[in-house]
């Protein structure tokens, strides 16, 4: 008995073709507020955001919802994550949960007096 491949269309009748998921990996080294990532229209992002710091509140990021401007506390949420921090034993924290962002949501680094090292790693996919 031979197997027959059946063609599967990604078109669900709406006239649009699905865009495959892709990995988003960003690293920013800066002492100023900098835009790290904006979720494109029609997409969502699920992943981890953090810094190289283990416990310094100076190394947070701003999560800013679509349509808002980044600021210190009224429309942006400050988040501190240690997922990318390598401890003295050479292992990484795995306690930080996954973050989900939607179209237009932005991630900015914090503005501090020392150069920070921020990372963002996750998957961008269609909604």
Q: Helices and strands in order, then pairings?
A:
Elements (H helix, E strand, L loop, with lengths): L21 E9 L4 E4 L4 E9 L9 E4 L12 E3 L19 E4 L3 E4 L6 E11 L1
Antiparallel strand pairs: 1-8, 2-7, 3-6, 3-8, 4-5, 4-7
Report on the architecture of this protein.
The strands form two sheets. A four-stranded antiparallel beta sheet has the order 1-8-3-6, with no helix packed on it. Strands 2-7-4-5 form a four-stranded antiparallel beta sheet, with no helix packed on it. It is mainly beta and 127 residues long. The protein contains no helices and eight strands. The protein is elongated, with a radius of gyration of 18 Å. The chain has a single domain (22-126), classed as Jelly Rolls. The model has no long low-confidence stretch (mean pLDDT 77). Helix content is 0%, strand content 38%.
What percentage of residues falls in helices of 4 or more residues?
Answer: under 10%
Number of domains: 1
Unreliable parts: none
Major sheet: order of its strands? 1-8-3-6
CATH topology term: Jelly Rolls
The SS-based structural class is mainly beta
Order of helices and strands: EEEEEEEE
Number of helices: 0
**Whole-angstrom Rg:** 18 Å
Count the E strands: 8
How far apart are the first and last residues' alpha carbons, in Å?
A: 39 Å
Shape: elongated
CATH architecture: Sandwich
As a percent range, the share of strand residues is 35-45%
Mean pLDDT over the full residue set: 77
List keywords for this structure.
127 residues, mainly beta, Jelly Rolls, four-stranded antiparallel β-sheet, 8 strands, elongated
């Amino acid at each position: 008995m031979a197997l027959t491949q059946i063609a599967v269309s990604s078109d669900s009748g709406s006239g649009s073709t699905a865009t495959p998921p892709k990995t988003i990996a960003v690293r920013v080294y800066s002492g100023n507020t900098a835009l790290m990532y904006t979720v494109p229209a029609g997409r969502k992002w699920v992943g981890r955001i953090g810094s190289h710091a283990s416990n310094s509140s100076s190394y947070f990021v701003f999560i800013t919802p679509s349509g808002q401007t980044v600021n210190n506390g009224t429309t942006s949420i400050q988040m501190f994550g240690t997922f990318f921090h390598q401890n003295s034993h050479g292992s990484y924290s795995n306690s930080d949960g996954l973050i989900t962002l939607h179209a237009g949501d932005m991630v900015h680094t914090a503005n501090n007096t020392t150069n920070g090292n921020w990372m963002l790693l996750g998957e961008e996919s269609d909604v």
